[in-house]
Amino acid sequence: MLRLENKLKLYGFNNLTKSLSFNIYDVCYAKSAREQRDYIAYIDEQYNSERLTDILYHVTEMIGAQVLNVSKQDYDPQGASVAFLIAEQAFPPDQIDSSCNLGRGVLRGPGNEVVAHLNKSHATVHTYPEYHPDNAIATFRVDIDISTCGEISPLNTLNYLIGSFDSDIITADYRVRGFTRDFSGKKLFIDHKIASIQDYIDAKTLLKYDAIDVNVYQANLFHTKLLIKDIDLQNYLFNTDVYELPPKLRLTITESLRREMIEIFSGANVYDDSTGADH
Q: What is the pTM of this model?
């Protein structure tokens, strides 16, 4: 857990806010309309509000926080959201929202969403499954935001989050906001050392990806993007065996998957004002 190794003596409360925004994209090849519908249904089942709630409960435990309130929702036609309000310290039971005691039994709506609140911090997750109507490429996006105040930091949850999803592209942003003071009155704009988000990702995981950093150290703003290096085509086919496909088609599908990943990784779309469309 990322905490101050040698605690600074502060004047009053630690007012620093540490926020981690974590996005993953999972890409799949689903050719027919039925395969595309089945893929969306599969994603909605695998990452429904119950599963997302379990993930956020574990994240909360990892950062040593306590859940105060939970909210979730399943969406129609697809997708889910979860939000946690959390607290750094323990709270008396009578000060915790009664909905938290429902735990994983909170009633579900027509889609998939969960929300929970913390007194100083919060964690949210949203899913966005979709498919392209023409090129048979389906994409599943997950957005996770964790914001904490005080000493605790969400960075130590990265490896767990990466392992909880099939991640072809990963985008992570970490920002430390605000300031606190030491006893001499000096402002402190960060209370821990960090050079790169990659320093908090397991070395074996990093070997699987090409990674780049865009950091603004003066603003305590850190940005890392990762792109999977190798494509094992069988892992990207939905309800299809790779050996059922002729070699030329395998190559074409692999190139389409790689092109989709590079477009998402680079974010190089150009908006056209005249048509309101992206290119």
A: 0.78
